[in-house]
Structure formats: structure tokens, C-alpha cells
Design brief:
Largest sheet: 9 strands, mixed
Number of helices: 3
Helix content: 10-25%
Number of domains: 1
Order of helices and strands: HEEEHHEEEEEE
Structural class: alpha+beta
Shape: globular
Strand content: over 45%
Distance between the termini: 53 Å
Amino acid sequence: MSRHSIPSHVSLLTTLLLAGAAFHALAADSAKGTLKMTSEGKPVSEEITHVYYITGPDSFAPEQTTRRLIFATTDTTAAIAACADARCAMSSIGNGITVELEAETPMARWWAHIRPTQQSGMGNRSIVSLTTDTPERVAGTLKIDSLGVKATITFDAELAKAFGPSP
């Protein structure tokens, strides 16, 4: 080995560290709370441990960009990374809840899912109380108590993915 060559283990470590930093940009950020609802006539509950903050075309007004918080019970980083549009990202969570914050109104749409039951609703945007609210990061508390769905979740999330208009 010459005096100027880098040992292979240092090069490999550097590569892994850089890859980890790039992957973190799409990693699930912190969420802590519980989603409760009734499924098949029985009360069910799931612990929410992951949150993803994404942006993309509004579900009902595609010319507008909407922010979404995707709360999940499991790490769905890879599934969201593979998605070409926001609808795919929202459907990849398995058990959890998605909140869509409308850009032009004080409303918030939400979809809660604990297999095999899905419940959705619309409420005042105050169901999400943000302590940090920037284009790159959101943090705060989600509180829903509507239509048999109860959720209280604290979260802190960096923008995981910005989706463009659907093809």
C-alpha cells in the first residue's frame, strides 16, 4: 500500500456513512401515540411509531399542492420511496392514519386504517396543532375524536418526499 492510498475499510466506511445520510432524508421521523377505533364490532388499538411528511397534488384539486402527514405502526420508508405519486404513499402505510392539510381552506381530511376497517372524515384543521411549521419540517400534536376514531399522537417530521403532479 502506498503512502497516499486509502485503506479499503476506511473507503467502505465513508461510503456507508454517505449512503446512510442520503437514506435518512426519507427515513421515518418520530411519532408517539395511539390510534383507536372499532373494527368488526370490536375495539382495536394500534401504537403509532412512525410519521412521514409529504407534499403533492391535492386529492380533489390536483392543481393545488397539499401537505400530508402519514402516521404508521411500521416503518414504510422503502414503500414510500418507491412511490411515484402521493396516493401510492398514502396507501402504503398498512395500519395507521393519514391527515391531508388543505392549502386553501381551514379543513383537514383524514383516513384511519386498522385492518380490515377504514374510517375517514373531515374536520377543522385544528385537529393538528403545529409547534413547528416550515416547508421542510412539521412538529406538533394530532388529536382526533370523531366518528368512532380516537387518536392522540405527538410527532416531529422532516419533509420525506415532494411529489409532483400525477402523470
